[in-house]
Specification:
One of its GO terms (biological process) is glutathione biosynthetic process. With 455 residues, the chain is of the alpha+beta class. The protein has a single domain (16-453), classed as Creatine Kinase, Chain A, domain 2 (2-Layer Sandwich), CATH 3.30.590. The protein is 39% helix and 16% strand. It contains 16 helices and 17 strands. It has helices at 60-71, 110-127, 156-166, 172-178, 191-211, 228-234, 254-262, 283-289, 298-305, 333-342, 345-354, 360-373, 384-402, 417-424, 430-439, 446-453, and strands at 35-45, 74-78, 81-87, 90-94, 100-103, 134-137, 181-186, 217-218, 221-222, 241-242, 268-271, 274-277, 309-310, 312-314, 318-324, 378-379, 382-383. Strands 1, 2, 3, 4, 5, 6, 7, 14 and 15 form a nine-stranded antiparallel beta sheet that branches. Strands 8-9 form a two-stranded antiparallel sheet. Strands 10-13 form a two-stranded parallel ribbon. Strand 14 and strand 15 (318-324) form a beta hairpin. The longest helix has 21 residues, at 191-211. It is globular, with a radius of gyration of 21 Å. The mean pLDDT is 96.
Length: 455
């Protein structure tokens, strides 16, 4: 969830017309397009495996303060507490349950993404020398903590969100406090290109979620799901999360997308660094009537966009959100996969042809089946594993064509190698592997599981 940095200058929005060109202005030509990564990490007690509190000498705030001191980050303070860090366009923020999120500045290729991730993990590993008894896990759900036992990060945004979302879905607090994901961001060249990408992502996201299923174990036992994170999202707020029917439409426009966003209820606005709860008001109505003497600004609209959580969404770019948090060696595969398809027209067309005849019912049924079956799910009689293998091959074609090399003269296909070797060739997700290890070599020992998941 985004960390809001209030701007001194607020651009007034007098009518819906003032927003109609909002998404158009961020279109970029092919030679300017970039790739972004967001990576969420779980901090747990080394012995108990339970979530580290926000407060205390070994807490999340102490970790942020140590990172700021050791690596020169600027602290972002709310109500006297350190809640985020910033340095040269890179943001380290906190999810509501203390999940530590890297939002790296956008870069030219996946090689640079890998370097950003390596630096982030190096910094976290370094901090362990100063704060004892903490492990950082690359995993998608807290493995041993109950939701009620996880301390809320003391941000007013999260206080407002928690009250709003729990009325919309019974697992909203589980989503906020227990889950973690890896997200990627991509540019678009035009309105047409933007919706070709958005629709393709929405249609492929269930297959990608299956490939990267990695949340089978929580509350100290197997949950019955391979991606419990997806199950939790289904019971958060259906109106603003998951697969959205509008995203599956091939001929949508920014104006139609804007209309959809404007009809969603608002949660909050920020004035003079103070968060103000907004009750039962759509953004459209806010533009027309205002709220308690306050009137809409572009910054309010951008904040509103950040409170909408579908599998893919437009901000100043296309954000792709469907993957569970992965072990470190698999994280670069997520932006590599999507880049190979979305930034190469022949690959984009081949991927689209693969699922062209699926109905909306097919998509929604598959999305639900993935929670339990992952790569073993079927759609129209086809095994998702086989579809995933085809899609990765298509992505490799796109990456090969782009010819982005590292210092060893390797192109970006190297980041799909672990995905193929560990998951697609054996036909076993990370989730299934973790359960097999837990019941076998780990002998259901907490220490073994934590060591396996730690960076």
């Amino acid at each position: 969830m985004s960390t809001y940095l209030e701007s001194k200058h607020q651009d007034a929005v007098h009518s819906i017309d003032d927003l109609k060109r909002y998404f158009h202005q961020f279109a970029k030509p092919a030679d300017k397009r970039l790739v972004g990564i967001e990576c969420e990490i779980l901090a747990v007690d080394s012995e108990t495996g339970e979530a580290v509190n926000f407060s205390g000498p070994r807490g999340i705030e102490a970790i942020l303060n140590a990172l700021a001191y050791q690596f020169g980050y600027r602290k972002i303070i709310e109500a006297g507490r350190t809640v985020a860090l910033e340095k040269q366009g890179t943001l380290i923020s906190l999810e509501p349950g203390g999940q530590i999120e890297l939002s790296a500045s956008p870069v030219k290729n996946v090689h640079e993404v890998k370097r950003q991730l390596d630096q982030f993990f190096f910094e976290l590993k370094t901090i362990r020398h100063f704060i004892d008894g903490v492990k950082f896990l690359t995993y998608s759900i807290q493995p041993f903590s109950l939701t009620k036992d996880i301390e809320w990060v003391p941000k007013t945004r999260y206080k407002i969100m928690s009250a709003y979302l729990i009325e919309k879905g019974r697992l909203a607090h589980d989503m906020m406090k227990r889950t973690a994901a890896n997200q990627a961001a991509f540019d678009y060249a035009s309105e047409e290109d933007a919706f070709e990408k958005m629709c393709l992502v929405m249609r492929l996201t269930s297959i990608v979620s299956a490939m990267f299923a990695n949340s089978p174990f929580s509350k100290g036992k197997a949950s019955g799901f391979l991606t419990e994170r997806m199950h939790i999202w289904r019971f958060t707020d259906p109106s603003r999360s998951g697969l959205q029917p509008s995203g599956l439409c091939t001929h949508a426009t920014f104006e139609e997308y804007l209309s959809y966003i404007l009809e969603l209820p608002m949660m909050f606005i920020v004035r003079n660094h103070q968060w103000i709860k907004v009750n039962r008001l759509t953004f459209k109505r806010f533009i027309e009537k205002g709220y308690r003497g306050e009137h809409a600004t572009q910054q309010d609209f951008e904040l509103h966009l950040s409170s909408f959580f579908p599998e893919a969404r437009f901000k100043q770019y296309l954000e792709v959100r469907g993957a569970d948090a992965q072990r470190a060696n698999l994280i670069p595969a997520i932006p590599a996969f999507w880049k190979g398809i979305l930034y190469h027209e022949p690959s984009k067309k081949k991927a689209c042809d693969l699922i062209r005849h699926w109905t909306q019912t097919d998509h929604f049924k598959l999305h639900r089946d993935i929670e339990i079956r992952a790569l073993k799910a079927k759609v129209r009689g086809k095994l998702v594993l086989d579809l995933a293998r085809q899609l990765v091959s298509i992505a490799e074609e796109g990456l090969a064509a782009d010819r982005q090399f590292n210092e060893c003269e390797e192109d970006e296909r190297i980041y799909l190698t672990p995905l193929k070797a560990l998951i697609l060739e054996p036909g076993e997700t990370e989730a299934e592997r973790l359960l097999r290890l837990w019941r076998g070599p780990f002998r259901e020992k907490k220490e073994a599981l934590l060591s396996y998941l730690a960076i």
